[in-house]
Design goal:
- The longest helix has 20 residues.
- The protein starts with 14 loop residues before the first strand and ends with a helix.
- It is globular, with a radius of gyration of 23 Å.
- It contains 16 helices and 15 strands.
């Protein structure tokens, strides 16, 4: 059986075999994370092979990539971008033959299996590690129980069936009938388990899945961050010692970013040829501390955003525009009188009082504040720019966000990036609620352009609750200097700053009302230059280069036994 013989060299390059439930060139946060992991592992001299379902269609990105071992699959009828694999002996043979071809073409023998899957990809990866006699590392990306509850009509029955399937595919993997039992069964043969957030790692340990669970965040591409002018304290990545990306996937493969920041080709409906979509896995559940007053978001960080520099590079939307709503119109926030109404939190940072200048720059798009360098308003304020990014499915709560936007009455315009089967319902909702003119559906966008639009926005909106194991988009926004309106208390806790918390509620109507309140508070804070500043720790530690170093350390520990 194919497997590495010598595992004694502590610093030698490794051959890592990744297993996924969906092809990594499809849409989804886990897929984006795996593409980045591969790219940064290869930059360090390691070899990466990716085992995943074969895609269906023509002119598919990465179709000739020899690192991909595509397993025979059946397309999902409702969305042929995704596929299903029956993980039987035929699939096992396809795995072995594909990796053997990879080795025959010059790749070293595999050293470690890294499963980043929950279903067929996990079964295949666990069994390959056993056949090859090499260590197994598993990254838990998903709250299986929460996802099944959100997407199936009989979740308990589905979970029982899933665990029965798991015991059939992996004999001896343990009892149990819930989502945690399924994850524990997968982890029962692992040398190490990682999670993309501290709160999800804690839950995995509390439910007996594995102990200890290593926390390794998914990260943001260092080169893209540098190109877009993100990074610590508003410094561009190059100033922070981060190399610009040389990978064409992140430097203009899509035609140089977003240009002037205008929406997609026609009313935001044009689909990119690159399936990179932000969204999907990230950020667990729980019941974090509520805000200061019921239904009212409070700023998590008293620091007020300073004045960021302008360009984002390569045609990306710029940040320095007249009357940037994260700056105080007229050069001051005054005495904070605006915070007295409706429970709006007042910043405790003395820098917030009189230190921000009015907007600068000359972007023709204008800014929500409408101010000039002297602080005098030039005309009517433009709407605050919000961005929502993700898969359009119930657990992501796009429809509740659009309901809340309509109910809030806030002077805001939203860009919705992503795709999914709820798109038609979302279009009907905005038309029925009279906000179609304030919502742009941009479809799937390339990774770099998505990040450029997040950077250009005034705030990002995160709406899933109890589903995410990390919640990547608020972290990416933080690295780009964009604060976030966060519905999941666990994500807000992990970020440590730069957010408006949405008040938790038990029922969906109350959640929608709380989100509407949070939108009003955020728009008011942005208008008055009082947006919270993202935590420096997130900006510093979320870079993919540091996350890859952390994962390599896990691999080497697993190899050492």
């Amino acid at each position: 059986m194919i497997g590495a013989g010598d595992v004694d060299g502590a610093e030698r390059p490794l051959h890592v075999v990744l297993f996924a439930d969906q092809h990594v060139e499809t849409s989804g946060g886990a897929q984006v994370a795996m593409r980045l992991q591969r790219r940064f592992l290869e930059r360090l001299g390691h070899t990466v092979t990716v085992v995943a379902p074969r895609r269906h269609g023509r002119d598919l990105p990465g179709a000739g990539d020899e690192a991909y071992v595509d397993i025979p699959s059946i397309p999902v009828p409702t969305d042929r971008e995704y596929a299903f694999v029956w993980p039987g002996s035929r699939a096992d043979r396809a795995v072995d033959e594909g990796i053997a071809r990879r080795v025959a073409r010059g790749a070293p023998l595999p050293d470690v299996v890294h499963v980043q899957a929950d279903f067929w990809g996990a079964f295949l990866g666990v069994r390959f590690a056993e056949r090859a006699g090499i260590p197994l590392v598993i990254t838990m990306h998903n709250r299986v129980d929460a996802g099944i509850e959100a997407t199936t009509p009989a979740p308990r029955l589905v979970l029982r069936a899933l665990n029965a399937w798991r015991r059939w595919q992996l004999p001896g993997s343990g009892p149990g009938d819930d989502g945690w039992a399924h994850l524990a069964g997968l982890a029962s043969r692992a040398a190490a388990v990682t999670a993309p957030s501290a709160h999800f790692a804690r839950r995995l340990e509390e439910h007996g899945v594995f102990r200890p669970v290593d926390v390794v965040w998914n990260g943001i591409d260092d080169g893209v961050l540098a190109d877009l002018g993100g990074g610590s304290a508003g410094a561009a990545g190059e100033q922070a010692g981060v190399a610009r990306s040389e990978d064409p996937d992140v430097r203009g493969r899509e035609g140089g970013g977003t240009g002037s920041g205008a929406p997609g080709e026609q009313a935001g409906v044009a689909r990119s040829e690159d399936p990179d979509v932000r969204g999907s896995e990230g950020g667990g559940s729980g019941s974090g501390a509520p805000g200061e007053q019921a239904g009212v978001a409070r700023s998590e960080d008293p620091d007020v955003r300073g004045s960021e520099g302008g360009g984002s590079g390569s045609g990306a939307p710029g940040r320095a525009r007249p009357g940037d709503p994260r700056r105080a119109p007229g050069g001051s926030t005054g005495s904070g009188a605006e915070s007295g109404a409706e429970g709006v939190a007042r910043s405790e940072d003395p820098d917030a009082h009189g230190s921000e200048s009015g907007g600068v720059g000359s972007d023709a798009g204008g800014g929500p504040g409408g101010g000039s360098g002297s602080g005098a308003p030039d005309g009517p304020a433009a709407p605050v720019r919000l961005v929502w990014v993700g898969r359009m499915s119930p657990e992501k709560r796009l429809l509740p966000f659009l309901e809340a936007l309509a109910a809030s009455g806030a002077d805001a315009r939203a860009e919705v990036i992503g795709a999914g089967f709820e798109l038609a319902a979302a279009r009907r909702l905005v038309a029925a609620r009279g906000i179609a003119g304030r919502v742009d559906f941009l479809g799937r966008l390339p990774y770099r352009e998505t990040l450029a639009r997040v950077r250009a926005a005034d705030a990002l909106v995160q709406t899933s609750i109890g589903f995410e194991t990390q919640g990547m988009t608020p972290f990416e926004a933080a690295c780009l200097g964009t604060p976030a309106i966060v519905s999941d208390p666990d994500i807000a806790d992990e970020m440590g700053g730069g957010v408006w918390r949405v008040e938790p509620a038990a029922e969906e109507p109350a959640r929608v009302a709380a989100l509407a309140d949070a939108l009003r508070v955020a728009v008011r804070d942005l208008r008055n230059g009082r947006a919270p500043r993202p935590a420096e720790r997130v900006v510093r530690e979320f870079r993919q280069s540091s996350r890859t170093d952390a994962m390599v350390a896990v691999y080497r520990r697993a190899l050492a036994g």
